[in-house]
Write a structure and sequence with these properties.
This protein is globular. The protein has an eight-stranded parallel beta barrel, surrounded by five helices. It has a two-stranded antiparallel sheet with strand order 3-4. By secondary structure, the protein is of the alpha/beta class. The protein is built from eleven helices and ten strands. It starts with a helix and ends with a helix. About 35% of the residues are buried. α4 (about 105-115) links the parallel β5 (about 90-95) and β6 (about 120-125). The protein has helices at about 5-10, 30-35, 75-90, 105-115, 145-155, 190-205, 215-230, 245-255, 260-270, 275-295, 310-315; strands spanning about 15-20, 45-50, 55-60, 65-70, 90-95, 120-125, 175-180, 205-210, 235-240, 300.
């Protein structure tokens, strides 16, 4: 079922969805199942599975030479999505990136998803690899997320890369994209970032999932700004609870988000990470409660394999 259909079917009742990481190469899928199982009591409409692009490593090849090798540390997104749908009977949504994919790779990826009966995808540009300062698209790949959305929409219209194909079948993907209540870290300003988001919607995106935020007013203001420029698709808030003291610096640096003064003060007084985790759970629970009261149809959690704190958040917010 499509994300947009899940929202319509809920008829105003807030649902809870989750995002997970593929396991590291060499690990099996049981860890994924173990992290999802405790959350199934909340009957999630869907579970997102991230995709991690290749990284480069240099390994000594002998004679003073070094060999550049491509490494994928978290492969298996497609297989994990299929396994989740089979085991839990819940829609699994793979992330698709511009980075690391040619357009041909992307088309083949989408064909595989269509064969597996996967109805939804999240289209993202992706980040730069660790040894690059700025994002560089793959040769013959999509440069921006809006280009990727256009390619997916082309397949939905039966338009493939090979113009000589005849009698092509149409896919029917529901396309999600990312939105940034505090703007994307590379955007020069908020209005410009909104303009880029509008381009993704105009190309065919069906819904938006936001970057994490810790002040609900920023989400409400973001939604208002989107509506004012004609973005009328569903906007799903993305949530991530604080869990460690180090995140006070890491999250603003990595994701360019602001942390409210009250939250920062509480965390700074915490004796250890156990206390920080409790603060993070309670803060996110209160955020969730406010979002439920506002009639938000789906609240999405970046659980990343950690289910216990998410479980507590939803239970507290639902009281």
């Amino acid at each position: 079922m499509k994300v947009t259909e899940h929202i319509q079917k809920a008829k105003g009742k807030t649902q809870f969805s989750f995002e997970i990481l593929p396991p590291l190469k060499g690990q099996n899928i049981q860890g994924i199942f173990d992290s999802i199982t405790p959350l199934m009591e909340f009957k999630p409409p869907f579970i997102d599975v991230t995709y991690h692009r290749e990284e480069y490593e240099y390994r000594e090849a002998g004679n003073g030479l070094w060999e550049k090798r491509v490494v994928r540390k978290r492969p298996g997104t497609v297989g994990i999505c299929s396994a989740i749908q089979s085991k839990f009977k819940v829609d699994a949504i793979p992330h698709i990136l511009c980075g690391g994919f040619s357009k041909e790779d992307t088309e083949n990826f989408l064909i595989d998803l269509d064969f597996l009966g996967i109805d939804n995808v999240v289209a993202l540009r992706g980040d730069a690899v660790k040894n690059e300062t700025y994002f560089k698209p793959e040769e013959k790949g999509n440069k921006y997320a809006c280009d990727l959305v256009q390619q997916i929409q082309n397949l939905n219209d039966g338009i493939y890369l090979d113009p000589e194909l005849e009698n092509t079948s149409k896919t029917d993907f529901c396309i999600g994209v990312a939105g940034y209540p505090e703007k994307h870290m590379e955007a020069p300003n908020f209005d410009t970032d909104l303009k880029y988001l509008k381009q993704k919607i105009d190309k065919g995106a069906d819904y938006i999932i936001t970057q994490m935020f810790f002040d609900n007013q920023k989400f409400f203001d973001f939604v208002k700004s989107c509506r004012e420029i004609g973005i009328d698709v569903p906007i799903i808030p993305g949530m991530k609870p604080l869990a460690t003291l180090s995140q006070l610096n890491l999250l603003p640096q990595r994701f360019k988000v602001d942390l409210p003064d009250t939250l920062v003060a509480e965390v700074q007084k915490a004796k250890d990470n156990t206390a920080v985790k409790e603060i993070g759970i309670e803060w996110c629970a209160q955020q969730t409660k406010e979002l439920i009261a506002a009639g938000i149809p789906i609240v999405h959690y970046y659980s990343m394999g950690k289910s216990e704190n998410i479980k507590q958040i939803i239970k507290r917010a639902s009281i």
